[in-house]
Amino acid sequence: MNAGRLYYVMGPSGADKDSVLGWVRDNGPSHAVVCAHRYITRPAHGGGELHVALSAEEFERRERRGLFALTWQAHGLRCGLGKEIEHWLRQGVNVLVNGSREAFPLARARFNDMVPVLITASRESIARRLMARGGETPEQIEERLARHDNYVAPGDALTIVNEGCLPEAGAALLSAVSGWK
């Protein structure tokens, strides 16, 4: 049996990465790809992504027990990918994980044959989405836009531009990782 491929999805705030991944989870054929849940130290209904909420203490206990394949910190939260993804990969399943641009070097070191995927959008679309979200000051939005402007994607990254309707970006991601049309 051939091993599956790990697709490490990342992108700037405002590119609507969580919605694109959610579309793939809801609309992709189950044999094509599995979307792994992240374990995060935030409430279950915090943020736009479907995740497994853990207290900081529970996260730390799981990390000490070796239950994560990868962990990192982002925006004051702890994030992790469970060891189950390793089992899925050994079973020949292609796995999409919701990563972080800042944690990408850690992920590349841990999974050297993974495929980086960048979900992005124009500066204008990102600014509009961040303003509509309403959770950040204009200064914080400008900081996020500056990070977007200065980010250099890995040379081997698959890039999905999320400018139009969500099904277009979702179908583009699904097609890129599974050959689905």
TrEMBL record:
Enzyme class: transferase
EC number(s) given by UniProt: 2.7.4.23
Catalytic activity: alpha-D-ribose 1,5-bisphosphate + ATP = 5-phospho-alpha-D-ribose 1-diphosphate + ADP
Coiled coil: none
Alphabetical keyword list: ATP-binding, Nucleotide-binding, Transferase
Pathway per the UniProt entry: Metabolic intermediate biosynthesis; 5-phospho-alpha-D-ribose 1-diphosphate biosynthesis; 5-phospho-alpha-D-ribose 1-diphosphate from D-ribose 5-phosphate (route II): step 3/3
Annotated ranges, domain Guanylate kinase/L-type calcium channel beta subunit: 3-181
Domain of life: Bacteria
NCBIfam families to which the protein is assigned, alphabetical: phosphon_PhnN (TIGR02322), PRK10078.1 (NF007485)
Protein family per UniProt: Belongs to the ribose 1,5-bisphosphokinase family.
Role this protein plays: Catalyzes the phosphorylation of ribose 1,5-bisphosphate to 5-phospho-D-ribosyl alpha-1-diphosphate (PRPP).
Protein's recorded name: Ribose 1,5-bisphosphate phosphokinase PhnN
Gene: phnN
